[in-house]
Amino acid sequence: MTKVAIIGAGLSGLSTAHLLKDYAKVFLFEKARGVSGRMSTRRAETYFFDHGAQYFTARTQPFKDFLLPLLNSGVIKRWNPRYVIYDDIEIIEQKNWANDEPRYVGVPGMNAVTQSLADSLNVSINTKISSIQRKNKWELKDETGRCYDGFDWIISTVPAPQVLNLMPKSFIHHDKISAIKMLASFTLMLGFKEELTLDFEAAHVTNCDLSWIAVNSSKPGRENGFALTVHSSADYAETHINDEREEIMQHLISETSRIIGKDVSKANFKTIHGWRYANNDVRNKSFVFLDLNNKLAACGDWCFGGRVEGAFTSAYTLVKAMRESVF
Ligand SMILES: Cc1cc2nc3c(=O)[nH]c(=O)nc-3n(C[C@H](O)[C@H](O)[C@H](O)COP(=O)(O)OP(=O)(O)OC[C@H]3O[C@@H](n4cnc5c(N)ncnc54)[C@H](O)[C@@H]3O)c2cc1C
């Protein structure tokens, strides 16, 4: 059977593995100590923080079909917050997502989705792939020098800028991928002893240094500690990516207090996470990066406009192209 190595165990790597597993022997390599990538959840004290993806949509039939077993088993549930849009400190739109298109979350954390997908797969965690070379077949080397060989195909699912360092120079899509930009983001996580009374549980924020504020504890299964998750704007993160984390945290805390009109500096748990490659700068393009001669491929949310559904669609489209031409 064809042997395939997939680098990265975020949603696109895990989806690729599931969609390929009837056609090939699939092995995943993940640098972090767990699967999930940007669908991670942090647990601290009694609080749950989805510090990457906040929720996701399922607009296409293939993604709906893929999610159905997870919905049926309760790993995914609908999140129905009161939703607002802020223009700086002014609320300019309000909706209840219970009456809108479904937004889904993993239960009890976003990473429940990816952990459930990983259950039946062969994943090597704590394994950062640092080089790929062609011997008789493809061989991967991790940062400790350990080799993994005998692969017919290599599929990278890491963020676009990291593909360029990882994939061999012979990969025919290098130039196209080098034109794809990804933007940074900071996530502020705040845990409180007392609930705050707010006009919303989910808020997009425009025209300031924030882009999003959520009552993370309003999502299903996370009710045991009032928690806010706040994202910076991409502009702020791109400008301040190398600044001191403490300074950034203080700024995002005061911005949050200013926007919602409540002092959040008294939170009893505070931390911040920086994402170098959070999202695409361009959302309306789609690509399939398949190199049939070299038996190399790349996919990821950045091939399909970013976002969780884009990560799945990228995997789905790549595997469809491989099934038509390879298997
Ligand atoms: C702050 C933030 C908020 C977001 N909000 C939303 C939202 O509300 N809704 C939405 O739909 N999307 C959101 N997104 C985007 C969403 O999280 C991503 O689109 C999706 O999770 C990407 O999945 P992926 O598998 O393509 O990439 P990733 O999740 O980044 O997976 C890539 C994996 O590759 C691993 N890796 C990298 N290099 C190596 C290496 N050398 N060796 C081994 N492993 C490696 C990484 O550790 C990672 O696990 C958000 C993202 C961020 C950061």
Overview of this structure, please?
The protein has 327 residues and is an alpha/beta fold. It folds into 2 domains: 1-31 and 127-179 and 285-327, FAD/NAD(P)-binding domain (3-Layer(bba) Sandwich), CATH 3.50.50; 39-113 and 182-281, Alpha-Beta Complex (Polyamine Oxidase, Chain A, domain 2), CATH 3.90.660. It has 8 helices and 20 strands. It has helices spanning 11-20, 61-72, 111-118, 160-166, 174-178, 234-240, 245-260, 308-325, and strands at 3-7, 25-29, 41-44, 47-50, 76-78, 82-87, 90-96, 104-106, 123-124, 129-134, 138-142, 147-151, 153-156, 182-192, 202-206, 210-215, 226-232, 269-280, 289-291, 296-298. Strands 7-6-15-16-17-14-18 form a 7-stranded mixed sheet, covered by helices on one side. It has a 6-stranded mixed sheet with strand order 9-2-1-13-20-19, with helices on one face. Strand 11 (138-142) and strand 12 form a beta hairpin. The model has no long low-confidence stretch (mean pLDDT 97). The structure holds flavin-adenine dinucleotide (FAD).
Characteristic terms for this protein:
binds flavin-adenine dinucleotide; six-stranded mixed beta sheet; Polyamine Oxidase, Chain A, domain 2; alpha/beta; seven-stranded mixed beta sheet; 25% helix; 8 helices
Largest sheet: 7 strands, mixed
Please write the CATH class name of the largest domain.
Alpha Beta
Give the helix tally.
8
CATH topology of the largest domain: Polyamine Oxidase, Chain A, domain 2
Shape: globular
Count every beta strand, where a strand is a DSSP E run of 2 or more residues. 20
Rg (C-alpha, Å): 20 Å
How many domain modules? 2
* CATH architecture label of the largest domain: Alpha-Beta Complex
Runs in which pLDDT lies below 50 for 5 or more consecutive residues are none
- The SS-based structural class is alpha/beta
